[in-house]
């Protein structure tokens, strides 16, 4: 075993690991031992068990996309990326598995990252042993990282020093984007965009039906007779185009991409081409673990983007294949039987291998890193174009290349709460650009689906400040775009979307901060109030940066109780001031609270400030408040300044102003 260290980061190498991803770390040898980290290791013939005490007053947060409470105690997590289908609370695993967690104990946060992308990794937080965290590693060689705090923020800075800072999405990608499975033909889409004018759509997503027989990088000529004109029409309206690109290359001798990719696809251990099944029927899959494959793929992406496509949506990239599932499904059907978790059958079969660093590695050993390498190759394909990638799956480091979303959620009141848990869980695990299918994906497949406008509005409501903000729906689902709703609900959606645009300069500044530091854009309350024990069980409120608390309404009412942590808070709509460390009855349908010491840039060059101190960097201008004086580091046009007491019309360039 070898321990290296650098600036509060420790890497422990047990036996002779071949990490699935070589992260950036140049440490020096350390004299520390496992004992110093309070860890013990039990070595088995083909596996390891790493244990750490779990204290009664300890909180465990992180682990990415997990369908349980944000304090992860008392759950046994399987870390295997799968196509989660119609998932619910406690469904485990889901699409994205990040083996990184943060312990908060006696005011001190410490991060732990097990660099294993194995589908059989299990992290048990006090279930099989009440007073222990047990990590079951299904191989004997592994690399661990430990990140010192003492704050959660510092742990995240260190974790993203190693695994990569979140990429900076384009500003337009923070706007309202629309999608469904699937929009076509091209003229309809243009008409829809025009009908949606007042909702300020910034991008349209095309789902799989835009392709000719699901062949990647092709157009269905009936649905899209003139793609160039279509793209121009969108761009004329200031709307970007994002197309889906799955990992499935149709196995077809007449398809040039199949031919050019030969030698770069996944194979079985016997060296035979692995031909699986996905949307195009018989399918082969790029082996993204190979550098040569990634170069080939980047060129394909580059050429596809050249026609004016602005972003890429990577779906099904856990990676999913239908072969095993279809076989078992048939047998089970004949037997009138069901399986406990058939979703695990959507993985590649175990005889598939990847070529990684000159070695043949079984698929299930490094499966979870597949989407990361795919996103990396896709990112490269943008070359000098501002990248936008949305990925359904991921591993530690996915934040460096892509935004992610929570897949095929089901419209229900329960799901609202679950979506907050998923998004905040990802956010606290290094993935800043995160969102959901607003309106929830599932169509009219089962009786638990709630298609009421009340619920649909609440989906817009929870997502108000999510960095990725898109409606998306299954083929047999209702229309979720606001224009299709009765006026009462449409107005509510309009208010939500307008509020998002009002705060967009703040959101974009936070995205820049996140890109530079690794700080999440939206955070669970305990991120900013680590010492406040109340915050660890509050999952229906979130912070947006350090200065804004949002408490979405997630029940069929229009009012709610809000917990405000310590400090003073100003209600955004009424300017009423509240003393924190208290529960208050909010009177707003969008409860937004501004923290004392805030400076928040708003739409149209307005500035919101509360309290007689504060600092913020916006558009490379440092804005500072000292008492009644607001100073700007260089001349900057300001329209209006909004304080707790008044609104000041400015309408000129400023370097300072007495409020
Ligand atoms: O590109 C089309 C959509 O693809 C994704 O969703 C699909 C999912 O990945 C598939 O496994 C399948 O899932 C359904 C499953 O077959 C069914 O038994 C039931 O559990 O419902 C599942 C639906 O979630 O089909 C999905 C498409 O219907 C992707 O996540 C979507 O965003 C894409 O629109």
Automatic annotation (TrEMBL):
Glycoside hydrolase family 31 N-terminal domain segment(s): 37-118
Q: Which UniProt keywords apply?
A: Glycosidase, Hydrolase
Q: Where is the Glycosyl hydrolase family 31 C-terminal domain?
A: 518-600
Instruction: Determine if RNA-binding is one of this entry's keywords.
Output: no
Q: Please give the InterPro entries that the UniProt record associates with this protein.
A: Gal_mutarotase_sf_dom (IPR011013), GH (IPR017853), GH31_Enzymes (IPR053497), Glyco_hydro_31_AS (IPR030458), Glyco_hydro_31_C (IPR048395), Glyco_hydro_31_N_dom (IPR025887), Glyco_hydro_31_TIM (IPR000322), Glyco_hydro_b (IPR013780)
Q: Pfam families given for it?
A: Gal_mutarotas_2 (PF13802), Glyco_hydro_31_2nd (PF01055), Glyco_hydro_31_3rd (PF21365)
PROSITE patterns for this protein: GLYCOSYL_HYDROL_F31_1
For molecular function, the Gene Ontology terms on record are: carbohydrate binding; hydrolase activity, hydrolyzing O-glycosyl compounds
The record places domain Glycoside hydrolase family 31 TIM barrel at 166-510
Query: What Gene3D superfamilies does the record point to?
Result: Glycosidases, glycosyl hydrolase (family 31), Golgi alpha-mannosidase II
Name the Gene Ontology biological process terms.
carbohydrate metabolic process
**What family does the entry list?**
Belongs to the glycosyl hydrolase 31 family.
Q: What is this protein called?
A: Alpha-glucosidase MalA
């Amino acid at each position: 075993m070898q321990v290296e260290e650098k600036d509060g980061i420790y890497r422990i190498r047990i036996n002779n690991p071949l990490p699935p991803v070589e992260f950036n770390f140049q440490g020096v040898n350390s004299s520390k031992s496992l004992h110093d980290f309070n860890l013990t290791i039990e070595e088995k013939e083909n596996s390891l068990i790493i244990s750490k005490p779990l204290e009664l007053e300890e909180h465990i947060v992180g682990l990415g996309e997990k369908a349980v409470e944000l304090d992860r105690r008392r759950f046994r997590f399987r870390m295997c990326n799968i196509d989660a289908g119609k998932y619910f609370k406690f469904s485990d695993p889901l699409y994205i598995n990040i083996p990184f967690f943060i312990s908060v104990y006696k005011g001190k946060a410490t991060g732990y990252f097990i660099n294993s992308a194995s589908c059989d990794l299990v992290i048990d937080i006090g279930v099989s042993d009440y007073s222990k965290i047990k990590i079951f590693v299904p191989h004997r060689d592994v690399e661990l990282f430990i990140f010192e705090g003492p704050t959660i923020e510092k742990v995240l800075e260190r974790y993203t020093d190693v695994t990569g800072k979140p990429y900076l999405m384009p500003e337009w990608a923070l706007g309202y984007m629309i999608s469904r499975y699937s929009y076509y033909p091209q003229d309809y889409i243009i008409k829809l965009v025009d009908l949606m004018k007042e909702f300020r759509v910034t991008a349209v997503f095309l789902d799989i039906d835009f392709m000719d027989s699901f062949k990647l990088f092709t157009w269905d000529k009936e649905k899209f007779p003139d793609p160039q004109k279509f793209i121009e029409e969108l761009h004329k309206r200031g709307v970007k185009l994002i197309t889906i690109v799955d990992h499935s290359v149709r196995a077809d001798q007449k398809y040039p991409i199949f031919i050019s990719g030969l030698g770069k696809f996944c194979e079985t251990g016997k060296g035979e081409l692995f031909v699986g099944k996905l949307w195009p029927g018989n399918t082969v899959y790029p082996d993204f673990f190979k550098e040569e494959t990634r170069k080939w793929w980047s060129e394909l992406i580059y050429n596809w983007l050249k026609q004016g496509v602005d972003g890429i949506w990577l779906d099904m990239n856990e990676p999913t294949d239908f072969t095993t599932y279809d076989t078992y499904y048939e047998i089970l059907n004949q037997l009138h039987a069901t399986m406990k978790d058939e979703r695990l059958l959507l993985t590649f079969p175990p005889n598939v291998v990847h070529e990684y660093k000159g070695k043949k590695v079984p698929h299930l050993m490094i499966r979870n890193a597949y989407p990361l390498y795919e996103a990396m190759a896709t990112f490269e394909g943008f070359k000098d174009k501002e990248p936008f990638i949305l990925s359904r799956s991921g591993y530690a480091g996915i934040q460096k290349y892509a935004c992610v979303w929570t897949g095929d959620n089901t419209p229900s009141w329960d799901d609202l709460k679950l979506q907050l848990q998923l998004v905040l869980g990802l956010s606290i695990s290094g993935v800043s650009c995160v969102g959901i299918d607003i309106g929830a994906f599932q169509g009219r497949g089962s009786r638990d689906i709630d298609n009421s406008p009340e619920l649909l509005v609440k989906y817009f409501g929870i997502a108000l400040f999510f960095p990725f903000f898109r409606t998306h729906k299954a083929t047999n689902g209702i229309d979720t775009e606001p224009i299709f709703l009765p006026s009462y609900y449409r107005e509510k959606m309009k208010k939500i979307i307008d509020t998002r645009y009002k705060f967009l300069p703040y959101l974009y500044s936070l995205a820049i901060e996140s890109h530079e530091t690794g700080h999440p854009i939206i955070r669970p309350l305990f991120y900013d109030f680590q010492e406040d024990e109340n915050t660890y069980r509050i999952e229906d409120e979130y912070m947006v940066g350090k200065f804004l608390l949002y408490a979405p309404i997630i029940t069929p009412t229009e009012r709610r109780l809000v917990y405000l942590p310590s400090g003073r808070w100003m209600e955004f709509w009424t300017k009423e001031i509240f003393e924190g460390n208290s529960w208050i009855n909010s009177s707003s349908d969008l409860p937004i609270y501004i923290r004392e010491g805030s400076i928040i840039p708003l739409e149209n060059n307005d500035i919101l400030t509360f309290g007689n101190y504060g600092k913020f960097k916006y558009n490379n201008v440092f804005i500072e408040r000292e008492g009644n004086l607001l100073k700007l580091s260089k001349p900057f046009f300001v329209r209006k300044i909004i304080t707790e007491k008044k609104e000041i019309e400015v309408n000129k360039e400023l370097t300072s102003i007495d409020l």
